[in-house]
Design brief:
The complex is a heterodimer. Chain A is an alpha/beta fold. Chain A has 14 helices and eight strands. The radius of gyration of chain B is 20 Å and the shape is globular. Classes of the chains: A alpha/beta, B mainly alpha.
């Protein structure tokens, strides 16, 4: 596998370094050839930077891709927003040679060139396509059998589809496959593909952001989800932080929020603390307790079955 | 709006279609959010009245409308054009200006939390491209100025 640079973006290192911990711990455990390279900036965030100056939006994203191009590495990001922005600009430039020439004329002045040779992938499609589902299944020591979790995809993991080509933009499946590879049931629910709504918090409309957060949380509470699993810091902010704030005001949902790498790490036998799960604002305790109980039952069952097999055997030596 | 790059032919169909209303999270769940009303005003040249509206900031850019659209266009394009127009007219949420200022100054929207990194036993963060970004931004601004002057002279 070709070496790849992790594009952490701004939100994870600034607000959620424990997510970085979770991702690094799991990538280390999977022995994947990742690297940190100098020179990245903000992707940049589309709804903010593109609204103010689309020229600078294009140039900044093109420069980030050029940094990876210069190092000869691919890019993988645990942030859906970052990868979607980078891929959108990269696709624009690859299909518009005049624009690409103009951008490269400017980039040349700082010694960079956008080639677009580095592949740009979000962590979920990367794990699915490049690492593979079978190898992930092989890593599972403790299955999530008996647990039902709700996947929140995060719009920018697969949209715009023409730029990312990561999954079906209207009916994605890869995240489901990865969750079920760990033994958990991926719940099918009405609001599964609805946007988290966190963008509204960035334009001074906090009450509306909460309206959208409630949509999923209420449905999942009614359905009895054991947890919500996602892979985007912005969606994480919406469901972990804003759920916590609403609970403080008296609305109870009780939905633990997990990053996919948290679940994968736990299944591999990694300690929750080493995945930074103790730093989440919503308590993951109920999820972990239920799971531990199921694991013990499963263990007891397996040994009971083994014992039974042993007793039923006609002879010890044939 | 002529400079917005909007495709008015496609927008005319948007004004009558509305297939994406059933998928658009803001249309479904935010009272008063009605992209077709905005599009009709854009087509009639009467879009100014929307620059002050909170609704143009409620498009989440989830791209659902673009994906479901038979023209592969969607409401999002109209909302983005309106937001750009409003921002240029100085009518934007305070947070947008605050975010832009931080981006323009540092090339990032926040600094790594070094204390937490240490506690979590994370490695030193890689160096950011801040200095190079600042150079790029300066070149871009200078080019833009020259471009505007040339345009004014002609």
């Amino acid at each position: 596998m070709k070496e790849f640079a992790i594009f952490w973006g701004c939100t994870i290192p600034t607000r959620f370094p424990f997510i970085e911990k979770s991702v690094r711990t799991v990538l280390d455990a999977l022995k994947l050839p990742y690297t940190d390279i100098d020179g990245f900036t903000c992707c940049p965030e589309k709804s903010l930077v593109n609204n103010v100056d689309s020229g600078m939006w294009t140039l900044t994203a093109a420069r980030n891709v050029a940094v990876a191009d210069g190092e000869g590495v691919n890019v993988v990001s645990p942030c859906t927003g970052c990868i979607s922005n980078l891929a959108t600009v990269a696709k624009d430039l690859k299909t518009d040679t005049t624009k690409k020439k103009e951008v490269n004329k400017t980039l040349k002045e700082i010694g960079r060139e956008f080639k677009g040779e580095s592949t740009l992938k979000h962590l979920i499609p990367f794990l699915h396509d490049d690492f593979g589902v079978r190898p992930i299944k092989d890593k599972v020591k403790y299955s999530f059998k008996g647990m039902q979790v709700a996947i929140h995809y995060g719009c920018h993991m697969m949209r715009p589809g023409t730029a990312l080509k990561a999954d079906d933009p209207l009916n994605p499946k890869k995240f489901d496959t990865l969750v079920e590879a760990l033994g958990a049931k991926s719940m099918q629910y009405m609001t599964k593909l609805t946007c988290c709504g966190q963008g509204l918090d960035r334009v001074d409309q906090h009450d509306k952001a909460l309206t959208l957060a409630r949509l999923k949380l209420r449905e999942l509470k009614n359905l009895g989800a054991d947890a919500m699993v996602l892979c985007c810091p912005s969606c994480y902010l919406q469901f972990d932080n804003n759920q916590f704030l609403m609970e403080k005001e008296g609305e109870k949902f009780g939905i633990p929020i997990l990053y996919y790498t948290d679940m994968l790490g736990l299944a591999m036998g990694i300690n929750p603390k080493d995945l930074g799960i103790d730093s989440h604002r919503m308590d993951a305790g109920p999820f972990l307790e239920k799971w531990a109980k199921l694991c013990q039952e499963e263990d007891a069952l397996t040994s009971a079955e083994r014992m039974k097999e042993g007793l039923n055997a006609d002879s010890a030596f044939i | 709006m002529e400079e917005s790059g909007l495709n008015f032919d496609l927008l005319k169909k948007c004004a009558d279609c509305g297939a994406c209303y059933d998928l658009c999270p803001s249309s479904l769940h935010i009272e008063g959010y009605d992209p077709r009303a905005v599009i009709k005003d854009i087509l009639a040249g009467d879009f100014e009245k929307w620059t002050d509206s909170e609704h143009i900031w409620q498009c989440l850019e989830c791209h659902h409308c673009v994906e479901i659209c038979f023209q592969h266009y969607g409401f999002e394009n109209a909302m983005t054009a309106m937001r750009k127009y409003a921002t240029r007219s100085g009518k934007h949420p305070i947070q947008v200006k605050r975010g832009w200022d931080m981006f323009a100054k540092t090339g990032r929207l926040g600094e790594p939390n070094l204390g937490a990194r240490k506690r979590l036993n994370l490695p030193e963060p890689a160096e950011s491209g801040e200095e190079e970004f600042k150079k790029l931004f300066a070149i871009y601004k200078a080019d833009k100025k020259t471009g505007t002057e040339e345009k004014n002279e002609s």
